[in-house]
Write a structure and sequence with these properties.
Length: about 280
Amino acid sequence: MVASLSSSSDRQIKAQADFFAREGYVVAPGLFSAPEVAEVREIFARIHAEGIPGHYAARSEQDGVRSADDPLFDFPRVMMPHRHNDRAKYFMLHPRVVERLGAFFGQEPVATQSMFYFKPPGARGQALHQDQFYLLVEPGTCIAAWTAIDDCDAENGAVLVVPKTNEAEVICPKVADASVSYTSHLVPVPPGHKAKLVPMKAGDTLFFNGSIIHGSGPNRSKTRFRRAFIGHYAAGDVRKISGGYRPLMRMDGTEYEVEAQSSGGPCGEGWKGALH
């Protein structure tokens, strides 16, 4: 059940939900405590050192990594860690994240994906894009919960969002500049809009609608990582999603299936099932 919004904390969540509905994104400060941030760092430092057999290796085999000289070669992102690590699953289903998702969706959420980005010094960013392009949630759209595990600013590649693009259709991307983006898709900023940097402190969580255009610049710091733990979610009435995100997970941690999206979306069948 979605909690009633009656206490002081719930009034804060209601204000965040109102901002989210209007702007398409919102930052919830300090959603993860300092000990939780430290635990997330430790979990993924261990995963990076030890790997996950058949799933994650500490050397990248992912698209967009150009060579062993690329910082992302040694620090590739970790995809779907909740399927292999119980504490990663706990943080994907974090009660304070779930509480806000319920307010933003207006109903119980379901989890579709978890990720961890290391973004070491010198790493490229990710060109502006829309998550719904990949997930193809039906009905509605997805919501991302992007939790900073390091302080984030312009120097180390904080997230950029384009406010009020939450009502935008999925836009077929252009080709991104590979010198600054490790992914190849770029969604241009629509006329009348402007990308906005979102500085965050470790433990803050940025929520954004699946249609929101967002991305990040390179990490230009010489010494600082920009680590982040990310979950993607859909409303509980989801019927279809791109195949790579199945099975989904209820908030009690049980898995279940929905129909694989049969459409490649407005950009064609070539995009069907792509993992973000």
